Here is the input.
Amino acid sequence: MNLKSNFSVAFFMSFLLLLVTAKGNSQSKALLKLEVSKENPHYFQTEDGKPFFWLGDTGWLTFGKLSREELNTYFQDRKKKGYNVVQVMVLHTLTVKNVYGDYALENGDVSKPLTTPGNDFKNPAEYDFWDHVDYALEVAQKNGIYVAMVPVWGTNVSSKDSKVTKADVEKYAKFLAERYKNRTNVIWLNGGDTRGNEFMDIWNAIGSTLKNNTDQLVTFHPFGRTDSSENYHNAKWLDFNMFQSGHRRYDQDSTEGAFKEDNYKFVLRDYALKPTKPTLDGEPSYEGIPHGLHDTLQPKWKDSDVRRYAYWSVFAGGAGFTYGNNAVMQMFHKGEKKGAYGNKDIWSDALNDPGAGQMQYVKNLILKFNYFNRIPDASMVVNQGEKYDYLAATRGEDYALIYTYNGKTMSLNMGKIKGDKVKASWYNPRNGKLKTIGTFNNKGVQEFNPPGEKMDGNDWVLVLTSKK
Here is the structure.
C-alpha cells in the first residue's frame, strides 16, 4: 500500500467535498414567509406567528443602477439601520437596462422578458437583467430584507403612447410568478404611482395573475394622496392596503376632501374597513425632497417631517411605515448630469442622512410591547389638536403611547390601560432613548409637559405602562 498516494487521494476527495458543500450553501437561508396576522389582521406576521413590523425604504432604482458591489453596500447599510423591506421598481421604463447594459425586455415588449441561458456573471453571454435581479434578491435575503417589487411602473401603462395590453401584462406577470414564486422574501406592489381608477383591467390582470400563481403578499402602490383601498380593497388579489401620503404641504394641496399632510387619516379610514386588512404609508414626503416636489426653490423635507409621518400613521393603527430619501430613491451617482427633483447628493452619502437612521426607533418602540393587541385610541387625548398640534395615541392593555410633533403639553384621560398606577417616561424619536419621569395615578385627567420648548420638530413620545 502506498500511504503517500492514498493520503493524496484522500486529501483531494476531502477538498472536492468542501467545494461541493460550499457551493450547496452559497444561497443564504430563506426568510420566513410573510402573511397577514391571523390573531389581528390589521398587522403582519411571519409564518411562525411572530410580529412583523414593516420598516421599508424606497430604493426604487436599485435593480437598474446599482452594481453587484453596490447592492451589497446598500442592503448591508439598511440592515444595520433596522429596515426589513425595500421597495423597488422592476421596470422603471420598458427600455430599462442595468448598470452592465443588460436590457430587461426584448425591444421594449413587456410580454417578452429578455433572458439568456446560465447566470455566470463573468461571462456576459450568460448573464442578463433578470440574473442581476436574482442576485439582488439573494443579497437582500442574506441581510434579512424582503423586497417589495413593482412589476411595471404606472407611467408605462398610463402614458398616451403606451401600447401595453392586458394580454401583455398577463404573460409578463406569469413570467414573474414562475421565476420568483419560491422566493420567500418577495412582496408585490402592483401599480406604481398611478391612479387606481384608471386602466383597472391592467392592474387587476397583474394582481390576479400574481396571486393565482404565488402565495406571496400583493398590494397596490397608488398615486399621491390616494389609497389602494379606494379601488381595490375588495379585490381578491389585494392582501393589504398601501397609500401614498405624498410630498406636498398643507397649503400646496387645494384638492377638496384631501387628507393633505394628515397621513394618519388614511390609516383610520382603512382601519375601519371590512374585511380587515393591514395598511401603511408606502410613500410619505421624502427626506431631502422639495416641498411639493417640482419647485426646487422650495424648502426641503427634513428628518423631523419624516418622523412625524411615521409616528402619526403607525399610532393610528398602521402595520408599518416606508421611509424615503430623494438621493437614495433614485440612486443618484457622481457624474450624473442632473438629478430628479433638484437632487445633487450621492446616494451612498445620503444613506446616512439623519432620518434614515431614526426610523428604526419607531419599530423598536412598537415591538417592545404586546404587538397584536395594539389599537389606535383618540379618546385618550383631551386636547388632540389639528395639523402640527395633533397628538396621536395608541395603546394595548397595559401600555399607551402618545406622540407630539412639537412638544405640545398633553392632557390625557387616564384609566385606559390596566392598573391603579402608571409609570411614565419620555421616549426620544431622534435617538431611541427612554427617560423615566415618575409614577402617576391612573384616573382622571393628567397633564404631561414634554422636555424643551414648544416648536416644530421637538417631538416626543409619552410612554405609559401599567405599574405592577
Summary: Residues 3-24 form the longest helix (22 residues). The chain has two domains: 34-366, 377-466.
